[in-house]
Amino acid sequence: VASTALLALCSTGAFSGLAVEAGAGVCHATPVYAGHSWHEATFRLDIAGSTLSRYLRDLLVATCPDPSLRALPRKAITQLKKRCCYVSLDFEGDLRNSDRHHPVSFCLGNGCSFCLSSERFRCPEPIFQPSLLGQAEPGLPALAFQALQRVPATLRTRLADTVVLAGGSTLFPGFTERLEMELEAQCRRHGYGALRPHLVAKPGRGTAVWTGGSMVASLRSFQQRWITRAMYQECGSRLVHEVFN
Question: Residues of the signal sequence (predicted)?
């Protein structure tokens, strides 16, 4: 058992920082200091990759109510999302100006062809604007700022120096730039102008937690904390809390 936020940081060689995770099911902003996750300062957004895939299907069907689009399997929609979608750095401006759209065509297995235009950048936008899906909670940049705001002032700059991105939904082109831009804007807006978050976006961040897990599991200090079957059978579930808390 290990914190995914800590494992994400470990994949970059860090043990302190802010982990910003956007995977398939959920997004998190979690401060980590000296290898320990700061649960009281962790914020969660229930919009992530699976939600965006469903949203892309809705956008496509609204544009072209073809039965074959409704029948597309989830895996095909997910692949289309990964291949074609990107994060806009000026969502409202791009939405208003069709000259700034970058349409692409895709073909279904039955030979039918469809065009994606504004859907390409509208699909990932709910991570930044959950209100597009009718949710009142703040977007991921605001949650990342709130996580930094919640930690003690003496640690805030140190954690902001290592903002590690992790998860497949951070791989959209433009995601890192947009998050950095909005996080800096949040800092300025709330009187933290001197705070300059530094984002760490490794190419392999889609599997950062897995990579960090393999690194941590190889450490001798971690191996000393393993629970064997015999230990669990003797002590029961109480042992899990004693070892990992």
Answer: 1-29
